[in-house]
Design a protein that fits this description.
The protein is α/β, with parallel strands linked by helices. Helices cover 36% and strands 32% of the residues. The N terminus is likely disordered.
Length: 188
């Protein structure tokens, strides 16, 4: 029983550390997102009805809707299209449930949620981003369905996008998401 109890305690410590590092990363990205102009709204820790996980951040503003998955990793990572690899004991290991897959799933869930609420999402006005805080990562081949950015470049990327013509759809999306988030912030 003692060994079992100790292994549970060690596992809980490791999971707690991982959760704490993840929260640090999310707080860092929130800080950068909050530098956006006042016409941008950010929804943090969004829980869509009927979904098990959360969406770290959703930003809505004149340049569209941005679904952001935040990761605060240590180690050595390489991204080759939709494949994420990390170095373990000198070998490259494929990450099956990687941040790119996660942000795409979150984006598809958001699209379905908006469509179910009469907000059509056809077109390119919803963008998937992974904000990756990791000292040793490299994108070898750019993913086609999402962007990987370091946290401090997220606001610049959002601001550089083409303005969306249908502001009414963005306002309706914002109204639907507001009650589903843990924290809401506006730009400066």
């Amino acid at each position: 029983m003692g060994v079992y109890g100790n292994s549970l305690t060690e596992r809980s410590k490791k999971e707690g550390y991982s959760w704490e590092r993840g929260l640090e990363g999310e707080n860092m990205v929130t800080k950068y997102i909050n530098t956006l102009p006042l016409d941008y709204h950010a929804y943090h820790d969004v829980q869509l009805p009927g979904k098990g996980g959360n969406i770290d951040h959703i930003v809505i503003g004149p340049t569209g809707i941005f679904v952001i998955e935040t990761k605060n990793y240590t180690g050595t990572y390489r991204i080759k299209g939709n494949q994420w690899l990390y170095q373990k004991q000198g070998k490259w290991v494929d990450i099956k449930k990687n941040p790119g897959s996660q942000v795409r799933l979150n984006t598809m869930d958001l699209i379905k949620f908006l469509d179910d609420h009469g907000i059509p999402s056809k077109g390119t006005w919803i963008t998937s981003l992974v904000a990756l805080n990791c000292p040793d990562f490299r994108v070898l081949e750019t993913p086609q369905t999402y962007k990987v950015l370091i946290p401090e470049t997220v606001p610049k990327y959002i601001l550089r996008q083409k303005k969306v013509s249908n502001i009414d759809l963005l306002e309706r999306a914002a109204q639907e998401l507001e009650p589903l988030c843990v924290e809401l912030s506006r730009g400066r």
